[in-house]
Design goal:
This protein has seven helices and no strands. The protein is mostly helical and 150 residues long. It has a domain of 104 residues. α2 runs antiparallel to α3, α2 runs antiparallel to α5 and α3 runs antiparallel to α4. The C terminus is likely disordered.
Length: 150
Amino acid sequence: MTAMNMARTAYATPGAPTRTGRGLEYDVLARVTHRLKSASESNDRRAFGALVRALYDNRRLWTILATDVADPGNQLPESLRARIFYLNEFTQQHSRKVLARQATVDVLIDINTAVMRGLRSDPIAPPAPQPPTRAANHAGPRTLGREVAR
């Protein structure tokens, strides 16, 4: 390849679009969710093995998400980080019940689907400031100052 061809190739339009973090998270959730759904709907006797593998990958995914939101440098709002961490805990516990054949995988599919919907929506906007409550207005300047500082 000549230098001119290499330069053209280097500056050519890429074949695949650049992906965002949200897009990658969506894709991984979609793949795992599809595998959970396929394995749970199959009547094949080997389906439980496929379900075990899909549950393993789903649990790994949720562990990674929980680790990410537990990082103090994570930029998501604290309340969302807490909800994601809780969903990880729930997913881990419910997966154990599915593996023990004490529960179905349906709720895990629902959780993943809900998160995927959230990833497809607009980026998270900061919450709108709330006006002080009546109690805050009567609490005195010292307490009101703490409320504003939060």
